[in-house]
Amino acid sequence: MSQDKRRRTRVQGGWAVTEKAKRSDADKTKVPPAPAWLAKTVDVPQQTTRQKFVYEETTEELEHVEKERLLDKAGVYDLSLGPSGVSRVKLFPNFLEKAECDAMFETLYDNLPWRQKSDVINGVKYLQPRMTLWLGPLPYSYSGVTHEANNDWPPVIQRLKDHLEESTGLCFNSVLANLYHNGHDHLPWHSDNEKGMGQNPTIASVSLGDSRMFELRKKPPVEQPDDFSNTPRVKIPLDAGTLLIMEGTIQDDWQHRVPKEYHDRGPRINLTFRVIHRE
């Protein structure tokens, strides 16, 4: 994205206010109130919550409905129920308003110290097809990559974290930011099941910039661990401002990815908030 284009498209919103010029109300994000369905949580002892919520709506159960399903409406979706528990996603397509998304995207795209790391797959090192930034009190390692502890939280991400925690009742201490420059940048199939994440971690993902498809597939039976041909799959379009929460046993029972796309896609930033524990 050229400097001229960024200047033309820049939106001066609450997320873009500098510390010196910040008004007394700058920390308050102008967003719609959180919907009632956000209150439903899986009983996971490892995930700290600020308060208990009462949920009165019906959850849609997707397992055994069809092999592939598109989710594009706000709601709570139970993807599967197994011996280890419920795998659940919560989708809120309008968590942030467009003006706030535009301002936040421009600030993060221009100012974060993005880095391209290397994955190790089957003993071979590959450059990750995206750029990343880690923020958190502890290191985070996966697929041969290690992000060192980094407590230098940009104010814009700290404000988003505060708003996210206030809206959901959850608490997070870390975030992995991903920058996808175009449709060829992608995230391969994986589960966020590293030991430092704890058992049944809750991950909250906020999307900025261009839209991308997010896909999940259920892990096959243990006797056929590499055969995904008949496993259920779910597709979720993630537009700017969308909040997606994964919770319960979803990291044990499902994998997810952001696939390559072969038509024009602009840059996208994804912020995945989580809790990291000392191993």
TrEMBL record:
<keyword id="KW-0832">Ubl conjugation</keyword>
<feature type="compositionally biased region" description="Basic and acidic residues">
    <location>
        <begin position="19"/>
        <end position="30"/>
    </location>
</feature>
<dbReference type="InterPro" id="IPR032854">
    <property type="entry name" value="ALKBH3"/>
</dbReference>
<dbReference type="Pfam" id="PF13532">
    <property type="entry name" value="2OG-FeII_Oxy_2"/>
</dbReference>
<keyword id="KW-0227">DNA damage</keyword>
<keyword id="KW-0963">Cytoplasm</keyword>
<keyword id="KW-0479">Metal-binding</keyword>
<keyword id="KW-0539">Nucleus</keyword>
<comment type="function">
    <text>Dioxygenase that mediates demethylation of DNA and RNA containing 1-methyladenosine (m1A). Repairs alkylated DNA containing 1-methyladenosine (m1A) and 3-methylcytosine (m3C) by oxidative demethylation. Has a strong preference for single-stranded DNA. Able to process alkylated m3C within double-stranded regions via its interaction with ASCC3, which promotes DNA unwinding to generate single-stranded substrate needed for ALKBH3. Can repair exocyclic 3,N4-ethenocytosine adducs in single-stranded DNA. Also acts on RNA.</text>
</comment>
<dbReference type="GO" id="GO:0005739">
    <property type="term" value="C:mitochondrion"/>
</dbReference>
<dbReference type="GO" id="GO:1990930">
    <property type="term" value="F:mRNA N1-methyladenosine dioxygenase activity"/>
</dbReference>
<keyword id="KW-0234">DNA repair</keyword>
<dbReference type="InterPro" id="IPR027450">
    <property type="entry name" value="AlkB-like"/>
</dbReference>
<keyword id="KW-0379">Hydroxylation</keyword>
<feature type="region of interest" description="Disordered">
    <location>
        <begin position="1"/>
        <end position="32"/>
    </location>
</feature>
<dbReference type="InterPro" id="IPR037151">
    <property type="entry name" value="AlkB-like_sf"/>
</dbReference>
<dbReference type="InterPro" id="IPR005123">
    <property type="entry name" value="Oxoglu/Fe-dep_dioxygenase_dom"/>
</dbReference>
<dbReference type="GO" id="GO:0046872">
    <property type="term" value="F:metal ion binding"/>
</dbReference>
<keyword id="KW-0408">Iron</keyword>
<comment type="subunit">
    <text>Interacts with the ASCC complex composed of ASCC1, ASCC2 and ASCC3. Interacts directly with ASCC3, and is thereby recruited to the ASCC complex. Interacts with OTUD4; the interaction is direct. Interacts with USP7 and USP9X.</text>
</comment>
<dbReference type="GO" id="GO:0005654">
    <property type="term" value="C:nucleoplasm"/>
</dbReference>
<protein>
    <recommendedName>
        <fullName>Alpha-ketoglutarate-dependent dioxygenase alkB homolog 3</fullName>
        <ecNumber>1.14.11.33</ecNumber>
        <ecNumber>1.14.11.54</ecNumber>
    </recommendedName>
</protein>
<dbReference type="GO" id="GO:0035516">
    <property type="term" value="F:broad specificity oxidative DNA demethylase activity"/>
</dbReference>
<keyword id="KW-0223">Dioxygenase</keyword>
<dbReference type="GO" id="GO:0006307">
    <property type="term" value="P:DNA alkylation repair"/>
</dbReference>
<keyword id="KW-0560">Oxidoreductase</keyword>
<feature type="compositionally biased region" description="Basic residues">
    <location>
        <begin position="1"/>
        <end position="10"/>
    </location>
</feature>
<feature type="domain" description="Fe2OG dioxygenase">
    <location>
        <begin position="171"/>
        <end position="277"/>
    </location>
</feature>
<keyword id="KW-0558">Oxidation</keyword>
